[in-house]
Predict the 3D structure of the following.
Amino acid sequence: MDGKNFSITIMERSGETLIMRIQSLQLSGFKGFDQNTTINFLDEHQNLVFEAQGDESQFFIHAILGIIFGMTAEEKLLFRGNPKVNQTFTGMVSLAIDHKILLIERDFETDVIACLLTDPQSSRPIFQGKDIVDNGFSRPYLDMLRSIFPIVDKSLYLEILNEEIAEGKPFSELLNSLYLLFSPSFNLNKVQSLLNQIETVSNEVLPGKFDTNDIQQLSRFKDFLLILQKANALRNELIDSLNKLNHLTQKIRQKHLHKDEVHKKLEESFEPIKDQNPILLRAEVLLWKSLEQLKAQNEAELKEVESRLASIEQTLKIDLAEYDQLPPEADRDIKTYHENKNKIEKLKKSIEELQVQIRLNEVKFKTWKNVKLFFIGVVTPLSFILSYVAFSSWLLIIPEAFFFLLIFLFLFGHYHTKIREKLLNLQEDQDILVKKMNDLKRDQQKLQEKWYFLKDEKHFQMHKERLLRYKELKSNYRHLKQQAQRLKESLGQPSFNEQLTNFRKKYQHLIDIKRPDLESYLDKFVAIKSELNAMQMKTPEPPIIKELQKITHEYRLAIQNLKQAYNSISDRLNLHQYNMPIDQILDAVDRKIKNIALKSGIPFEY
């Protein structure tokens, strides 16, 4: 039976999850297993119940691959037990493929291989015949295997697994690597089967909302959600497998590079991070360091701010508690008292200046009064006498004396009158200022009677300084509160903490960000990796790399197709309007269906 028909047989159940696992191994005539021995790897729940280490792991891996893909004559001599104890040299591997069992039995003495596919209802052979590894001719058996396994060259499997055996990995991890290489055909078939199912149902999905009160529409909506859930789960599974394959590929590439000085530097100085992407590692580690420094700085600043807040609170509660009890009008009265005090001081200075001017003008007033009296009482009679002696005529003397009198009265009397008016104005201004000052003093006295701390200048000065300190502390307290709140918000940002947590999980076991030469260390790592990548570009790719690249390429296409199909159905169902994961939408739909069924009396199963 050809491989094509076989692949159709084991993949025909559309939409079911296909799992390939090694169920058991039967050996006869092997070293250490001369008698027929069956080893069960899985229990009835398909859980691995067998473990091995070191050389024992290597033996079982070689035995499994030898049964499936054959052994050379040299390998047969290496694994053959004592022919005198057991003349048979056979092995059988039982592969659980979904609900079917694929039995591959090989007789190493006759090179006869037989493959049988069984299920609970039937069994049928899919290959039986000779499979000679060393004859150099075509092997029909391998043509059949290609419909099951993407890689049929045993040396490629051994190249990967021997490296992992050398690393000391347990048998369970070796099996996982083996399954990773065995399963691409099954995974890709699952993808194609699911894509066909999505294509079939996509025509049934009409854009728009479902009637949330129609149990049939809700049930159909749930079916679509289940398909999307399956697509999402399969896509995540493929992404996980793709990452593992990429890691294997990178490890094999490194193995095939020449162990030159550059590669030795990488292994010796950068062992924990040698498999990391250098550019991404450098960027994220430096960002991680800056975030850690920012967090430490903010925490230290917050601690200092909280310490200052505690100190201010203690001062306000103990030393300045009285000002917390003052009513709002007290501050206004204190301000008024202070302003009045300054006004009184200014008025006193103004009054003193007026008093000086008044005294000066009083002196001027008296001086000019005396001058006026002198000229009128002395100069006028003297001029009358002199005129009489000179002219001896009363007709001339009387008009002249009268003329002199008028001149003196006008000259000295006018200036004397101006001085008196100015003096009166100054005295009037003084009275007005004195009245204002007295009014302010009465207001001050009322405020002193109202508030105890204004009763005298000493109390007022002490209170003013304490109140000023109280206001400054209150203002500082508000600013520090705002600063503390900003720091707490910065430290509590979900994106900030999530980024820090992710970086710690990803890199804290690989690198110490506190090392002083971190940046130069990372720069050197980037330079060495770049040099190794350049060397790698010049090194021919080994066959296993080409095989793995084919698988990873197909996986990427499958992941992309699943994503496109998922987005297409999701858009047609308008799932974006729910703004929640598909699992939560399914739970909500289930609850809605059950509620409708309860109200309608429709029986349903929990």
